[in-house]
Amino acid sequence: MRDxxxxxxxxxxxxRAPHASLIAERVETEDALLECLDAGFDLFQGHCxxxxxxxxRESLPVGVQAV
Length: 67
Fold this sequence. Notes:
Helices cover 33% and strands 6% of the residues. Helix 3 (30-39) links the parallel strand 1 and strand 2. It has 67 residues and is mainly alpha-helical. It has 3 helices and 2 strands; from the N terminus they run H-H-E-H-E.
């Protein structure tokens, strides 16, 4: 929503390509969701749907990479 507010609907037109899906990120409120729907976004992500989840895991020793 931040970029859409700053750059306007022209940003959506430039991003829309054949067979492309537009993803709205940081959708925090129901009002923001309605704005995104009106603007033509296809997919949505943000606290409006579910808060972020922190996944706990053990730290790896220095020099060891996860696979």
